[in-house]
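Schema walkthrough. Field components (list of strings):
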Amino acid sequence: MSSESRPVGEDELHAYVDNQLDAWRRVEVERYLAAHPAVAQRVNADLQQRALLREAFMRDDDEPLAARLNLASLIEQRMVQRRFPWRAAAAVLLAVSLGAAAGAAGGMWFAGRPIGPFMTLAADTAASYAVYSADKRRPVELWAAQREDLNRWVSNRLNRPVAAPDLAAFDYQFLGGRLVPTARGPGALFMYENHQGGRLVLLVRRMALSRTTQIEQVDIGGMPGCAWSEGEMGYGMVGEEPYGRLLEVSGKVRSQLRG
Amino acid sequence: MPNTITAIEACIPALRRYARALLRHAQDADDLVQETLLRALEGLRTRHQDGEVRPWLFAIMHNQFISHRRKAKVRRDDAERDPAGLAVIGLDAHAVRGRQEDGLHWQDFVRAFDSIPEDQQAVLLLVSVEDLSYAEVSQVLAIPIGTVMSRLARGRERLRGLTAADAGTSLLRRVK
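Field assembly_structure (string):
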């Protein structure tokens, strides 16, 4: 009988359900339960609850993590930001104006920022811009001379025709592009450069939901950027330009792509 | 520091799981995880080196979740304007239901779970799904351990009541 054991408390019954008792006490609790069927029934119900909770919330565990949750690339972005202090300064300024205490973290997310319609697209564009536009020697994989190859390549991977727009009218020469990973599968990254060496990128990728929107101002890695959706495709654009200018360029891009 | 990075990386799937359980929205959950990771990276240098990484990360996430909750109304308004924000994953009411088996289904169970108070849900998730110790849960939620135990007890009691009724109805349905 269990008469010689310490009495079993309510908290210990929970600890028993949650596997948080040492082996010795566990045996004593089991002996107690054997002698108290009503309590044992309750504990059994709790064990079943625990199993159902685990079944319900662990069933998505196998799903691959989104690209933007990759720790290595989050760290890389932070490093890029440190190499470009003016960008970090801009991020801090914006954070302060939003009233966020430590909002400069990574620059692409600010505490309490409302979740906007193009948040994921903006994050994808910010990641590509941070990593590739900062690369002086090899910002693109296929250069402007291989434009046709590039268009064919990204069109095949996005499973629909995608062509790099022409931005020469805005003093931006086409530099080239590459395929990039995004939260929605493959994305096409096109890069442009002006006479001052300033770079501008356009990211094209699929959206979760097919719809056509206006061009909207979004925060891309602490910089003003443009994003819009045309049917099932999404477009994100960022560069060292004021928003008004970007909006003008985006309008041109949109009409060219609609062509 | 490299060890801490490895430890953080190992926690990402669990953080996503907890975020999804709290928010039931894949994109919002990823936002929450990403924000947690950025804050963790930011706070690496000031962190106590000897502390456990898991409860530290969950505490960061919990604080973010609470601060978003305060702005929940703003977000709901946004979501109403933007149908893209409503793409709910996995555990929603329209999820394809598995074939009816004996006993209680996890879908029915989740419905019961959703009806208990949120602070009890958090404790149950951290304890039952994330396997945090009671002391760690008290650290994550910044509440005394006695409060952890009473929320756990009340949460389980309510679920017992709700699921007993549910099991009864599904039994009736089967007999009929």
